[in-house]
Amino acid sequence: MTLLKVSDLVVEFQDAATGRINRACNQVSLDIEAGEIVGLVGESGCGKSTLGRAIVGLEHPKSGSIVFDGVDILSLPAAARRQARRRVQYIFQDSLAALEPRQTIGSALHEALIIRGERNPRARAARIGEILAATNLNSGILTRRPRELSGGQRQRVCIARALLAEPKLLICDEPVSSLDTSLRAQVMNVFLNLRDELGVAIVLIAHDLALVRQASARVNVMYLGRIVESGPSGALYAQPLHPYSRALTAAILGIDPEVERHREQTVLKGDLPSPFAPPSGCSFRTRCPDASDRCAAAEPAALVREGRSVRCKLYDETAAVN
């Protein structure tokens, strides 16, 4: 069952000084099934976070549609839109900034339930106990403040607070990027348990491609405002189709140093173009090792076949996408 369907979403920002437009999301389409983890990867500035923030209502799209649980959220009146979006929660990268520094964790969690209309203190305490267990936290943290917790504990508190809204979908924006390896594993195990035990769907926005491969059923690769490739995680990592996807997956280090020493490296030339002045045609062509003159003529259409999608002139309607 499709829980979220984003179609042709456009989100733009205007530079106040120059008036130039940055199309951070350029006709982006994305599907999320109920109870699955979907990865969203790409360089900083490619539009990943903007897409996530638009889904949860923190950015206002210029056009397109966001259909969540069968309802087009963008077509609803403001009050109904806020109500519908309570079932979509956002986990921010900086857990310390996401929590009120002077408020105890217990107060923050109780407040989340009060906002939802739960006035009974005993009922709130019981619900908080359930959520703490689901996120591998003990009740001793309830009297502590954010700075008294580890990074992993704070991130799990943010997850717990989001779960109190009983969401069907979590948007997780680089949720483990600031944590060390052991804490990353703790937080990722929480996400996997939420999927398996509560059926919560998760959009995992991350730079760590190895982590996304491990956790996600499907992966979307984003570059300069567009999703350039998407498909099942195993197939995409085993045989990336888009040149940008190949460069990203080639950057994943293996565990055998001897193999890594002799592995062919894919190095992208140049820097990410300015989003205020993207190249004509294919936005990746200025860095692509396979670019040709025809890449500058027009933006390639998405070729969709057998559960995979790719935007590249290397593929046409007769190309095989397996």
UniProtKB/TrEMBL annotation:
Keywords: ATP-binding, Nucleotide-binding, Transport
Pfam families: ABC_tran, oligo_HPY
Record domain ABC transporter: where: 4-249
Subcellular location field: Cell inner membrane
UniProt key word Transport: yes
Alphabetical list of Gene3D superfamilies matching this protein: P-loop containing nucleotide triphosphate hydrolases (3.40.50.300)
Database matches in SUPFAM superfamilies: P-loop containing nucleoside triphosphate hydrolases
Source taxon at top rank: Bacteria
Record-stated family: Belongs to the ABC transporter superfamily.
Protein name: ABC transporter ATP-binding protein
Species, as recorded: Dongia sedimenti
